[in-house]
Design a protein that fits this description.
108 residues, alpha+beta, four-stranded mixed sheet, 4 strands, 18% strand, binds FE2/S2 (inorganic) cluster
């Protein structure tokens, strides 16, 4: 398997309803993960980009969270509509989406 140019981790952690930390799944992160897969399929980027669902990455209150390597850029409060922007700006043009960057209080 070739090493991907970008590796995208989407938090799909769930927790019991009412848990004090909530979870990214409670904020619809599964649909965000599906949208990443859909956008990758539409652009036929299977050889260049890898998408992985993952457990909690820490800053649950800021979720849904998405982490992209090799840059180590974490995004906060990602919506389904943001996924296309992340593809166009970051994954294909190496320009992180400033408005979605995780606060340095949580990732820095
Ligand atoms: S549940 Fe997603 S960052 Fe903690």
């Amino acid at each position: 398997m070739p090493k991907p140019e970008k590796h995208v981790f989407v938090c799909t952690q769930s927790r019991p309803q009412g848990h004090p930390r909530s979870s990214c799944t409670e904020k619809q992160s599964n649909s965000i993960f599906d949208e990443f897969l859909w956008q990758m399929q539409q652009r036929n980027l299977f050889a260049r980009i890898q998408i992985t669902s993952t457990g909690c990455m820490g800053p649950c209150s800021e979720g849904p969270t998405v982490l992209i390597y090799p840059e180590g850029v974490m995004y906060a409060g990602v919506t389904k509509a943001d996924v296309e922007v992340i593809f166009d700006q970051h994954l294909l043009n190496d320009q992180p989406v400033e408005r979605l960057l995780m606060s340095s209080e949580f990732w820095g």
